[in-house]
Amino acid sequence: MPPRNHKKWLATPKIEYISSECYNNYEIYEQEIEHIFAKVWVPMCHKSEMANKGDFRSSQIAFQNVVAVNHGDNIKVYLCPQIDRLTGNGISVDGLTELHSGVQHGGMVWVTLDPNPTQSIDEWTCGAFDCIAEAIDTEEMEVFHYHKSIIDTNYKLWHDTNSEFYHDFMHYHNRVTGFNDAYFARKNIPFDNGHVNVSSFTVQYEEYEGFEDRGELSFPNLPPNQWYMVDLFPGFNFNLRGSAYRSDSVTPLGPNKVLIEFRGYGLKKDTPEERATRIEHHNSIWGPFGRNLHEDLIGVAGQGTTMREGTEARRILHGRHEGGTIHDEVGMRHYYAEWGKHLGVSPENPLGHAVEDDMVVAAE
Predict the structure, then answer these.
(1) Which of 28, 120, 185, 356 is surrounded by the fewest CB atoms within 10 Å?
(2) Phi and psi for 93 in degrees, rounded to 5?
(3) What is the pLDDT of residues 218-245, one digit of tens each?
(4) What three-state secondary structure class fits 25?
(5) Which domains does the chain have, with CATH numbers?
(6) What is the CB neighbour count within 10 angstroms for residue 58?
(7) DSSP strands (E only) in 8-84
(8) Is the pTM of this model over 0.85?
């Protein structure tokens, strides 16, 4: 490629792209809170985190405190202006506003702030969980691992990490042991509402130094050592890797800050020995000191630094087409088309700059 001067670097690409302003503008962030997070179905926690009658689990969605309460025969979610504990037992719900909620897809507690949702939970997820439904719904699951990270980056950059697979090349051990033809042939499959799932392949764990085959503890109805992933718009991920299941939930704290909650799951019927093995398998990949997770977090923090408000706008290319396989950027294109629809903007030009002579210039 010949050298480019500054003018050429700012030229509008001829392939699919979005503007970095999607990530760093405060007004856009406020619109996301109002038009996306306050409207969609959010998986706020798992029912096993409130196993007993009277147990509760609190969270925050779109600046609103919410609390899920186990009433014994069901779980309900409420707006709760005053809450000073993440979890506990015995909270009073008198006078609290009940929200639309439900327990689905492996025991997740789903809630929406929208007082008049136009879609049910199933209509919202619209088939994205079908690929793992028998694995996560056949037996009761429970959370055995929880931790959270507050990262100086935009929440969409974390979701991008699960939507594009170029970042895999920063995982050294994966690169030298796990990449094979079957890995690259995995499909990115888009669903309505901006969701994507990634089809399976057989992970050869025995090729990882210090690892062993994990087929014996595969989830129900899941062939040994398979790997599926579900990415839900606008920022929720469900990752099933044979013996271990993980979910991520994002809570934007600003255009350049995000809270990410990580949960690891086992089967409620696990023996102590099975649970110990399952925890080891989970943490070796996704624990705070595992192979993958910290590298992903470092990567998105670096991306966020380069896209802070005040940096020069750039174009992030989404133009790779590879028949819907994992390095095809169909997942990115699909996500940002949905994102633009919710906000009523073009991801290519979210601030409505004037376009002149194949260059984007600030509108007066």
Answers:
(1) 356
(2) -105, 10
(3) 899 988 778 889 999 999 999 998 888 9
(4) coil
(5) 12-26+127-364 (3.90.380.10), 42-118 (2.102.10.10)
(6) 21
(7) 17-19, 42-46, 55-61, 64-70, 75-79
(8) yes
